[in-house]
Design a protein that fits this description.
This protein is mainly alpha-helical and 130 residues long. It has 4 helices and 2 strands.
Length: 130
């Protein structure tokens, strides 16, 4: 093997790790700083996240997922983004004393997996046709 050349497995692994790091950083930037629930006048609570924060996170992560899928690294796009958001949610919500954070983390994982699979599949199929 020549120096300076990476194997496909090493390239896939590094792409997955980069996408996981980008996902965790995006979570910290959009959702990590907001930790308090909003209490309304009637006593009900919402939050801690606003819709614009979650939409911002999704749109931010859409760019690297599309880029990776377009470059034919759909596996890295799906696995890296899913792993990164799952780890970030688990770390962020782990101080919940009820233990229900595990359900939320599971839902984040499933939602991220399904959505990144859909985006990657569409882009990968369009890339193959072109």
């Amino acid at each position: 093997m020549r120096e300076g050349r990476t194997t496909p497995v090493a390239h896939l692994l590094s792409s997955t790790l980069v996408l996981a790091a980008v996902s965790m950083a995006a979570w910290a930037a959009w959702l990590g700083w907001d930790q308090h629930r909003d209490v309304h006048a009637d006593g009900s609570t919402t939050g801690p996240y606003q819709a614009w924060q979650v939409i911002g996170l999704v749109l931010t992560l859409l760019v690297p997922v599309c880029w990776a899928a377009y470059r034919r690294y759909a596996v890295a796009a799906v696995s890296g983004t899913t792993a990164g958001l799952t780890v970030a949610a688990s770390y962020d919500w782990s101080d919940d004393t009820t233990g229900l954070f595990v359900v939320g983390v599971g839902l984040v994982m499933i939602g991220t997996l399904v959505s990144t699979l859909a985006v990657s599949a569409v882009l990968a199929s369009r890339t193959r046709r072109a």
